[in-house]
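Hi support team,

I submitted a single chain yesterday and got back a structure, but I'm not sure I'm reading the token output correctly. Could someone confirm the output below corresponds to the sequence I sent? I've pasted both exactly as they appear in my results page.

Thanks,
R.
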Amino acid sequence: MSETAHDTSDVVVVGGGPAGCSAAVFTARYGLDTTVFDRGQSSLQRCAYLENYLGFPAGIDVGTFYDLIHDHVEASGADLVPDMVRSVERATDGGFVVEPQEGEAVRAKRVVAATRQGADYLRPVVGEAAFDEYVHDGETYERFDPEYADRDGSTPVDGLYVASPGGETDVQVVVAAGRGAHVARTALADARRERGYPDDLAAHYDWRRSEAELTGEWADRDRWRELFAERTPDDHGLDEERAVDLREREIDRRFDTYIDDEAVGARTERGQDRLLEHIDDDRILAAAREIETEHAADSD
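Hi R., thanks for writing in. Yes, this is the structure output for that exact sequence:
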């Protein structure tokens, strides 16, 4: 293990499939420095064509889907590294050292395991107790214990989370993506607790709302201050200056989730343009010709 890792990251996600990419989008969008290691051998690659992922009524080819989720990871601000992780070990400062096969080691505060095909790289940090044996067709195999992690992805190792392998929670692409997001929210809640947020305010929700809904008491900062006080225990242990800073930051974050119609329109155009980047040019041109033909017919 190299304790003198050259790079640092708040979160390292091991695995660039649906679970890992979903987790990385959540942590990176929150503002945590996130690194995703992807060796390019996700079990998704074994799928001939993806037909049951919500939002693609005619299905989507695996190559395009894979490109889309990686594009989303990078657009969210995470670093995508095409390398295989050999080991994850505890660092002397309580974090982790992630050793890839080819590149430099990375120091991380938190690690999200998201590799459905094996988890040997976790042995140095979880030990043998995290692996068990099972019998399939009369043969005995070893596997990472699907019950090792709790339902929220947390583990007995502080700072280590498991999105995959996870038994039945990652056997379908859409379920695996949801699992990754769920585990990321667990990691984010822990990070917020470390920063001083009380348990009742630790959960993080990532969504955008219409500015038109910011009305009544919820448009009043003082109402949010009251809510923060109601959910903060008397023994929170923070000095007054720190408590006020956290409160105001949280209120700012809540207000920033509201966007006006112009911002919604801009995001809509940007989102559609981004999708076009992943569609074959010949398909776009063919669709454009059909639209021109329809418009010409309507004008006659």
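A quick pointer for reading it: The chain has eight helices and eleven strands. Let us know if anything else looks off.

Best,
Support desk
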